[in-house]
Design goal:
This is Autoinducer 2 import system permease protein LsrD. InterPro entries: ABC_transp_permease. This protein is mainly alpha-helical. The chain has 14 helices and no strands. About 65% of the residues lie in helices and about 0% in strands.
Length: about 375
């Protein structure tokens, strides 16, 4: 006697639903980490305006945007790098190296634009070195970029020593601190806006960007779906190097000083802003608007604390705590959510009906039933 486990014509198959994987549009737009960061940033700004002396002054916006401009710039490529599951700790040392090159070349008679172009090429070379070692040699990005952090910073200090170069053309230093018209928005926001639009299109509206997310989720699977994993990582590290060099040039001209230790510690602020903005440290998740909100949040906190005469060390402690919280909190929330949303196990399906054998009567081994 045989029984069939397939669904018969008279038996309705259970409907397959995806309630656990779908949500209304408003939930997908509003109930996200990025929206939470934007809301928190707005709350901190409103609190600072109401409670911090001079925070609502006419020059606060100018100095705030000038302070966070290098972090905003570097956060753009860093977001893509971390989404792939990698990290670049050498960005601040590339800033320092580009600063020194700009100063040394200008001191030896080269114009600022020409020296800046060579500094950008140096940043490209630094990023290419990182990308080659990570993408093609297969070394871990954490180890590589810690090593190149020391390498690039050592070259910068070796070229210039402990002195500073300050004889930059006034036209260029004024340009770095000037604003757009009568507003308090610095001119540096124009190249930042252009780069931001480019990176948004690259990440969110291109096949290259989809490949970036695929690599972060599973680089081996991404390879078999046609994504050139090595080339993608190389391109991202090159972009990181070039944009870091650009940030270093702006940093140098804004303060009118080229030093080997310029931008020391900036990598912490960049990574903290990226992770705080919703990018997963494990890769595969993140959006640029959340990252930009994270940068502004850290900048507002730093500016408010500075106006309250809080030391830089305390500010660094707060930024470090935000970095730790941005890594731990998503995992805690995910574990809590999965625990409370876990449905009870469904009861086992009944076995196919069989006539029960009379008590005491067994079946004969090998006999037909």
């Amino acid at each position: 006697m045989s029984t069939s486990t397939s669904t018969g014509a008279g038996t309705a198959a259970p409907a397959r639903t995806y309630d656990a994987y779908s949500a209304p549009l408003w939930q997908r737009l509003l109930l996200t980490r990025e929206t939470a960061v934007i809301a928190l940033t707005a709350a901190v700004i409103l609190y600072s305006i109401a409670n911090v002396p001079n925070f609502d002054g006419p020059l606060t916006l100018k100095f705030l945007l000038q302070d966070i401009a290098p972090i905003l710039l570097i956060a753009l490529p860093m977001t893509l790098v971390i989404i792939t599951g990698e990290i670049d700790l050498s960005v601040a040392s590339i800033m320092g190296l580009s600063s020194v090159l700009l100063g040394v070349l200008h001191e030896n008679g080269m114009s600022v634009p020409a020296a800046a172009m060579l500094a950008l090429l140096a940043g490209l070379a630094c990023g290419a070195l990182n990308g080659f070692l990570i993408a093609y040699v297969g070394l871990p990005s954490l180890a590589v970029t810690i090593g190149t952090l020391a390498l690039f910073r050592g070259i910068a200090v070796g070229l210039l020593g402990t002195k500073a170069i300050t004889d930059f053309t006034e036209k260029w230093t004024d340009l770095a601190t000037d604003t757009i018209g009568e507003t308090q928005v610095p001119l540096v926001m124009i190249p930042f806006a252009v780069l931001a639009v480019g990176f948004v299109v690259l990440l969110h509206f291109s096949t290259f960007g989809r490949g970036v997310y695929d690599i972060g989720l599973n680089d081996e699977a991404a390879h078999f779906t046609g994504v050139d994993v090595a080339r993608t990582k190389l391109v991202l590290f090159v972009l990181s190097g070039v944009v870091s060099a650009l940030a270093g040039i702006y940093f140098t001209l804004r303060f009118g000083s080229a030093r080997g230790d310029n931008a020391t510690g900036y990598e912490l602020q960049v990574i903290a802003a990226v992770l705080l903005g919703g990018v997963s440290i494990f890769g595969g998740r993140g959006r640029l608007h959340g990252v930009l909100a994270g940068v502004v949040l850290i900048g507002v906190i730093s500016s408010a604390l500075r106006l309250e005469s809080v030391t830089v060390n305390v500010t660094n402690i707060i930024v470090g705590l935000l970095l730790v919280a941005s890594v731990i909190l998503p995992n805690v929330l995910a574990a809590t959510s999965s625990r409370f949303s876990r449905k009870p196990a469904a009861p086992p399906e009944p076995r196919p009906h069989q006539d029960a054998a009379p008590a005491g009567v067994g079946t004969t081994k090998g006999s037909d039933s």
